[in-house]
Specification:
This protein is 36% helix and 18% strand. It is α/β, with parallel strands linked by helices and 475 residues long. The strands form three sheets. The protein has an eight-stranded parallel β-sheet with strand order 8-9-10-11-12-13-14-15. Bound molecules: zinc ion. Zinc ion binds next to loops.
Length: 475
């Protein structure tokens, strides 16, 4: 099955470190869904071929933090110029009760297609649209939509056992779940979907919506205990803005990371979205415990939250991955845009710290903060690490053949001295010659087989109007 020879690539970036970050190729052989060889290869009799002349090859991206239901909430005006807390009330929390089965499925499909067309094959969705007595099984819809597109899907089962003040005043506030019901649903999902195998297409993660606010402290500790008993990972939001430091001090008299440590929520089986605002001792604690980050630079920029210090986190030992976060705070929720932003913002962040030499400054700027190879590694191998998919995220013999083949056929790439950097450095979206998942093409010549893009756009326009009506912002 899936025997294939990819031939004559212009460049191959592998997602690995150091000298192994590039491979001269120019050919990659895929057998049985895995990479069988990389080098100068001769076609075998009967072997299918992809001509990758003038193409750049990356490992398929691994998106480690998203909220797919938000794909119908892009650019929502009431939240567009708000900081995190006001934005939560204005957009996602105000609209989420307005989703029905049809609009939820459509939102998931739009978000997954956008990611797929950026070269992303694995998506971890932090799904927190839950309330008691929900009339549709949103987990089933998410897995169905991912499966129909051929993507790997990790459902991070969000939810809350208490209502936050910012939500309680909204007309369509969702009622919280009881802890027993929440845990029972996680156990149901694990039994039905969770596959611990290295080549799994479906996984489940324990993921209360925010570690600080969604449950009581004792309940938070219980979620960690049950997750480890079930053999699944832990994920949540943490330290997205300074508000987390204020809230943790006021409620618990400690830092957000210390609070997580006290409730068994640190370790190599845990990753947090954002980690923008951290004290130095928190960076050390995260690194010592090998707790991971889903870095979401575009959402953090859109909400004005800040820029996570990936250099300090990685130096401390934190596994770094990249997530697009929900489209209600990111109007370009695709992995190429996200990687482009990560590359620029890490450099800009360091440059902001530069001081004149007469005032004790030691450096001119931050161009050494992140290379294209670093950013690719975060968005592929780093993602695979935090999700526990060791056979994903790098191009090497024996690894799963989740492979993005980009064709740089837009003027933005014309004139490049190094083709390999194009899909990240140039911004925008490079078209896909093919995207492979375990050697099977799920995008071919930039088209998703069976998908009517015009119809998807028309459905989205109609769904936005219906959502506005149900949320009471349009009559
Ligand atoms: Zn998020």
């Amino acid at each position: 099955m899936n025997n294939l020879l990819i031939r004559n690539a212009s460049a191959i970036l592998t997602g690995r470190r150091g000298a192994a970050a590039r491979h001269p190729g120019p050919d990659i052989r895929v057998q049985g869904g895995r990479i069988a060889a990389i080098g100068h290869l001769q076609p075998l009799v009967g072997e299918a071929q992809i001509d990758a002349r003038d193409c750049v090859i990356y490992p398929a991206w691994v998106n480690t933090h998203h909220h797919l239901f938000q794909s119908l909430l892009k650019g929502e005006p009431q939240g567009l110029n708000q900081n995190l807390t006001a934005w939560l009330a204005a957009t996602p929390y105000r609209f989420r009760g307005a989703f029905d089965e049809q609009s939820f499925r459509l939102a998931a499909r739009i978000g997954l297609v956008e990611l797929l067309r950026s070269g992303c094959a694995t998506v971890a969705d932090h799904h927190y649209l839950y309330y008691p007595g929900m009339p549709f099984d949103s987990a089933q819809i998410l897995f169905e939509e991912a499966e129909s597109l051929g993507m790997r899907f990790v459902l991070c089962r969000g939810g809350a056992t208490q209502t936050r003040q910012l939500e309680a005043e909204l007309p369509q506030a969702l009622r919280p779940e009881k802890l027993d019901d929440y845990l029972a649903d996680v156990e149901r999902l694990v039994a039905r979907y969770h596959d611990p195998a290295a080549d799994a297409m479906r996984r489940i993660v324990m993921a209360p919506t925010t570690a600080l606010h969604s449950t009581s402290p004792a309940e938070l500790r219980e979620t960690a205990r049950v997750a480890r008993q079930l053999g699944i990972r832990l994920h949540s939001h943490l330290s997205e803005t300074v508000d987390y430091l204020d809230a943790a001090r006021a409620k618990f008299g400690m830092t957000p990371v210390q609070f997580c440590a006290e409730h068994d929520w640190l370790g190599p089986d845990v990753w947090f979205a954002h980690l923008v605002k951290l004290l130095p001792e928190e960076v050390r604690q995260l690194g010592d415990t090998r707790t991971g980050i889903a870095h979401c630079p575009q959402s953090n920029g859109r909400l004005g939250s800040g820029i996570a210090d990936l250099c300090a986190l990685e130096a401390a030992g934190v596994p770094v991955s990249i997530g697009v976060d929900g489209a209600a705070s990111n109007e370009a929720a695709d992995m190429q845009s996200e990687a482009h932003a990560a590359w620029l913002l890490q450099r800009a962040r360091k440059g902001q710290l530069a001081e004149p030499r007469y005032a004790g400054g030691q450096f001119e700027g931050g161009a050494d903060a992140a290379t294209i190879e670093d950013v690719l590694r975060w968005g592929t191998a780093g993602g695979a690490q935090v999700l526990g998919f060791e056979a994903l995220g790098t191009l090497a013999v024996g690894q799963l053949a989740d492979i993005a083949i980009y064709r740089l056929d837009d003027p933005r790439y014309f004139g490049l001295h190094d083709m390999a950097i194009g899909p990240i450095a140039c911004g925008g979206r490079a078209s896909l010659k093919a995207l492979l998942v375990a050697g099977r093409a799920v995008v071919e010549d930039d088209r998703v087989p069976g998908l009517d893009m015009g119809e998807l756009g028309r459905q989205a326009s109609a769904a936005v109007i219906a959502l506005q009506q149900r949320a009471g912002v349009r009559r």
